[in-house]
Amino acid sequence: MSTVSIGGITIGFDDVGGGDVRGRAIGGGDPLVLVHGHPFDRTMWRPQIEHFGGAGVRVVAPDLRGYGESTVVPGKTTLETFARDIAALLDHLRIDRIVLGGLSMGGQIVMEFHRLFPHRVRGLLLADTSAQAETADGRRARDEMAERLIGEGMAPYADEVLPKMVAPDNIRALPAVARHVLGMMRGTSAQGAAAALRGRAERPDYVEMLSHVAVPTLVVVGDRDEFTPVADARLMYDRIPKASLAVIEGAGHMPNLERPAAFNEALASLLAAA
Asked: What is the pTM of this model?
């Protein structure tokens, strides 16, 4: 675990596995950078950090601003701000090109990063996310939720959405996973989460951009995901020329935690192709 001050904020991050002075992983591959979703932190990637980092892949997993060990900045945080924070961290670490992955909001940050810095991306992981712009109703709902989180704190929201984050059967069958997810949500700053909600309400439409993605891309989705259903994943898969699709059986919105073996197998195929 490390922290660094960049651009007026502190960013907490993990940087594990091998890497030479140019940031390339042992064996010649580019580092894997993993972006967490909302309202989580970098520990959501623990099974992937341990698996791939232990195999010699350099894995970098930051806490986004407002989450985990990173600075909370109240107000509004756009996807562009998150993407530029990641670029600044990579510059600090002297990492040029990467395989970049994200889940949910993290996947949308990945798409924004690709929009801004396509030359730095060698492969994409888009997990349980969507490329469409927010709807008018969705914008209102996110703004209202931001105010609710400020007023109530994170605990009521966390308890309410846990059965959508983790498939209900897995809450019972995988209690450690459920506790981890619930703990991340309850531990997130309400101000940080609200800022991200306000910014995400203004997200652009990435659908048109998808046809211009020229790198190997893995689209992953849990077959029981209620937030970003399989149809959203298939839309991205159909639009991206070099995409593969993995539908993880028995998983909800967090297949990397609910079914880590299947998720890691799919991700390993992307790393081999990137």
From this structure: 0.95
